[in-house]
Amino acid sequence: MRKILFFTAAAVLISLNSCEKFLELEPISESVAVSNTSADSVFYKSASEVEAALAGVYADFKNEYYQLDYFVNGDAQSDDAYAGGDNPANFQIDDYRIDAINLNVSRDWAYLYSTVGKANAVINNTQAVNDPALSAQRKAEIIGEASFIRAFMYFQLVQLWGDVPLQLTEVRTISADKLDDIYPIIFPARTPKEEIYRQIIADLEVALAGVRVTAPHKGFITKGAVNTMLAKVYATQEPHDWNKVNQYCDAVIAGGYTLLPDYDKLWNNSQENSPEAIFEINYNGGITDGNWGTKIFRGLDWKKFNLPSNDLARAFDAEGDTKRKNSSIIFLDVTGKWSDPHWPQTKYPFINKYRTFTEGSNQNYIFYRLADVLLLKAEALNELGDLAGAAELVNQIRTRVSLPNTTAATQADMRLAIEKERRLELAFEGHRWYDLKRTGRAIAVMNAVTGANNENLGYDLNEQRLLWPIPQAELDKNSKLTQNPGY
Question: Do the domain assignments include residue 469?
């Protein structure tokens, strides 16, 4: 049985009485919790209120960003998928022609900062709750889980936009004499990405000290999830710290996770919260807890988003990788339903990793799993000069899907071998675009992508298009924000 995490009104506890004029100063996003504490200075009064607030933070892993846009940003923005569907905002993302009024860009900024605001409230106010039902250990766990989620949101933000506002506090009182303190919170400037990364790591260190080793299911933050994210952050920030990547990958591997013997069982819904999964968003299905995102990627009722690319299908075929290809892509006949310039109607591909796509789907999403960590460790070992150790890990992943050992014999060849292995292993899990960016390969790879007839698709990606524009609506509200170059 999965536990349902509901977002309730108790999660935020915002009092707005007698402050209408102040609230005409609209914040840049929903990231700031505003409360009038003249009557009561206690944000949360009981253990149940704190637990409800934390549930509200977790619940945001089921919003539109994580059901849909997370995968559009990670996959359709890469060479693994075309935009598909009929949404002009997605076409802009796919073609690197985003502008500052793109609706996806605006809503993703708002979604991520909204969750930051909820996490801030939990982090900053849990310790002060005086309720015997809330032990010191549970307080540490709650603050650790919320800290991980705040770090997760900022990791998305800094990879998409670079320098972004760093908001760590909520407005607790509203009065004229505090306006100098309040304005920088509501109207912040952008913080250099280096400082954002330092805060992400600081939050993850808090999380690592506080969260549990195991939990009722993989939808709760555990030490394995924190160690995984620390490895990813150290592999992404500049300069990369491969010793730290290796250290945190080792901590994950020591945590008792194991690869499933059958790759396809990760996706056929027979092994949810499996020994391979590290962080997995759990859905019960139905009206109240259904994953509508799967319906966006699979089904014949309307043209779907994230259309698998010819380039990815060719990559599977060139490797002889039938097991992962069949688990990742399914080809169907859509004659008479719709057409697309990339694929014939008689052999039209859909993502096959998300197979329960009815209304109220109970399909889980796996965000972190062991294979990802093993390949990240292989990357670290290769960069540290241990080619044999890297090969051993790559071969472990390949053996599961009945592929021969890698033939990479130099560090440069191994880099490309690991890049390819991550692509085929993790297709449609939201990783590919960020992998290409952090390895400095995005421009070369994307500008060389070819279509169905090996024609160059003409993406014309450049350095300025590796980051998104700051949403125009946010610039209009906050004069301290500046736009990214090229927009």
Answer: no
Token pair recorded at residue 178 = 């505090």
Report how many helices (DSSP H) and strands (DSSP E) the chain contains, helices first: 19, 6
The mean pLDDT of the chain is 91
- CB neighbour list of residue 461: distance below 8 Å, 6 or more residues apart: 96, 442, 443, 446, 447
pLDDT tens digits for range 142-189? 999 999 999 999 999 999 999 999 999 987 666 677 777 787 888 999
Domain that holds residue 430: 216-451
CATH number at residue 259: 1.25.40.390
Global pTM reads: 0.91
Burial of 8 (0-12, 13-18, 19+ CB in 10 A): middle
Asked if residue 263 is part of any domain, the answer here is yes
* Residue 481, domain member (yes or no): no
Q: How many structural domains does the chain have? A: 1
Rounded to whole angstroms, the Cα distance separating 225 from 313 reads 30
Fill in the amino acid letter for 147.
Answer: S
Buried b (16+ CB within 10 A) or exposed e, 251-272: bbbebebebbeebbebbeeeeb
| Residue 243 included in any domain | yes
